[in-house]
Design brief:
two-stranded antiparallel sheet; single chain; alpha+beta; elongated; about 20% helix; 5 strands
């Protein structure tokens, strides 16, 4: 019997609306795991103000919506 190997990874996902109101996610897989909400909020405001990311003339990260740590649990059931 092969043992189940559990792993848990967390990614910081920042969600923004673009100029047209569509949602876009900016992900940081190696972000610190204990960032305070005000720090995340200020960072999101800065990202929006910098206007760095556009596609076909649309600003992708225009309005901050939310920030969250998304946890992914992996259960390995087979390993060769």
């Amino acid at each position: 019997m092969i043992p189940i190997i559990d792993s848990l990874t967390a990614t910081l996902q920042l969600r923004f609306k673009d100029d047209e109101g569509k949602l876009h996610t900016f992900s940081f897989p190696k972000a610190a795991q204990d960032l305070p909400s005000d720090t995340v909020g200020e960072a999101m405001k800065t990202i929006a103000e910098l206007n760095l990311f556009t596609r076909n003339g649309t600003q992708l990260y225009r309005k901050p919506v939310s920030g969250a740590y998304v946890n992914i649990k992996t259960n390995t059931i087979y390993s060769a």
